[in-house]
Amino acid sequence: MSKLITIERHILEQQKNFPEATGELTDLLSDVAFAAKLVRREVVRAGLVDILGFAGSTNVQGEEVKKLDLFANDKIINAIGQHGRFAIMGSEENEEIITPPNNENGSYALLFDPLDGSSNIDVNVSVGTIFSIYKIKNSDPRKADISDCLQKGSEQVAAGYVIYGSSVVMVYTTGHGVHGFTYDPTIGEFLLSHENIVTPKHGKYYSINEGSYAQFNDTTKKYLDYIKEEDSATGRPYSTRYIGSLVADFHRNLLTGGVFVYPPTTKHPNGKLRLMYEGNPLAYICEQAGGRATDGRRRILDIDPSELHQRTPLYIGSEDDVRVAEEFEQGIR
C-alpha cells in the first residue's frame, strides 16, 4: 500500500465529486464506521467476557438471540442514534421501528442487521454487520414513520457491511463503485485496501446450504445436479463454499467470483433471508460491483416491500452464474 487512506478521508474525497453534496451522508457513514469499531472490540474479545451463548430470549423472527446480538444491536443504536443524524432506524432484532432521540434534523433512515451469522460466534467463525441507508420521504423528520423504511432497494443512497474475521473489513457503496477498508488496530482506523471492487462475471464457487436438500424444490435440485457435473467449457464442477454467515459467504464470492443461493424451501416457501436487512443492501453492493441479485424471478432492488421483516429467496453474485441459477428456478433449463 503506497499511501494510507482512512475511510473518513476516502468518503470526503468521494464527496468532492458531487458539488451538491451537503456532507450529511459523509457524517452518517463515519458514524457507522465508529459503531463497527465498538462491535469489533467486543467480537475479538468475546471469549474473555460473559458475552458468548444465548441471552434467553427470541427475536421477532422467533430465533434464539445471542448475547452478542443484543450487545451489537445496543451499541449501534446508541452510537449512531445519539447524534440525531438519522430520523428513523430499523433493526433485524427489533420488531418495531426505532425513533432516535433528537431526530428533528435527521434526513435519513438506517436499516441494519447488527450481527449477521451470530450463531457461529461461539466457534470463532466470521460474523458481520450489514447496513442500508435511505433518504426519508417525510419533509419533517419528526413525522418519519415505517413508510420511510419500506422503500425499494433501488432507493438506497448507501449500503455496506463489516466482516469480523481474521481481519476486520468494511465495504461500502454510495452508488458510485464499491470500496473496502481493512481495520488497523495499531492506529484504530479503517484503511483503504480494496479500491473499486469489481466482481468477476463468472466464478468457480457456489454457496448453498445443502443440508436443506430434502426441502428444496425440484428446480433447485436440478440446478445443484447441473453445477456438480463435469464440463470444462463452463468450468464445472464448481467448488462448494458455505460458511453459514451470509456476509462472509457474500464477501468471498464478491472478491473471487461465484454465486450464493438461498432458495425457497418447504419450511420457508417465501425464503428465509430478510429483504430489508440483508437482501437489499447486499444486492446494491453486488450490482455496483458488476454482479447480479434476484429472488429467482425478480431483481431484488425492484421488490416493493410491504413488511419491515419481509423475507425473500436470494440468488446473488457473479452475473453469469446468477443467470444460470435463475434459468433453473424459472424452469427454462
UniProtKB/TrEMBL annotation:
GO terms for biological process: fructose 1,6-bisphosphate metabolic process; fructose 6-phosphate metabolic process; fructose metabolic process; gluconeogenesis; reductive pentose-phosphate cycle; sucrose biosynthetic process. Gene3D superfamilies: 3.40.190.80, Fructose-1,6-Bisphosphatase, subunit A, domain 1. It comes from the Bacteria. Mg(2+) 1 binds at E92, D113, L115. SUPFAM superfamilies: Carbohydrate phosphatase. Pathway: Carbohydrate biosynthesis. The keyword Metal-binding applies. The keyword Magnesium applies. Binds 2 magnesium ions per subunit. Its cofactor is Mg(2+). One of its GO terms (molecular function) is fructose 1,6-bisphosphate 1-phosphatase activity. Its EC number is 3.1.3.11. One of its GO terms (cellular component) is cytosol. Signal peptide: none annotated. Residues 200-328 form the Fructose-1-6-bisphosphatase class 1 C-terminal domain. InterPro entries: FBPase_C_dom (IPR044015), FBPase_class-1 (IPR000146), FBPase_N (IPR033391), FBPtase (IPR028343). It catalyses: beta-D-fructose 1,6-bisphosphate + H2O = beta-D-fructose 6-phosphate + phosphate. Substrate binds at D116, G117, S118, S119, N209, Y242, K272. Homotetramer. NCBIfam families: PRK09293.1-1 (NF006778). This is Fructose-1,6-bisphosphatase class 1. The lineage of its organism: Bacteria, Pseudomonadati, Chlorobiota, Chlorobiia, Chlorobiales. The gene is fbp.
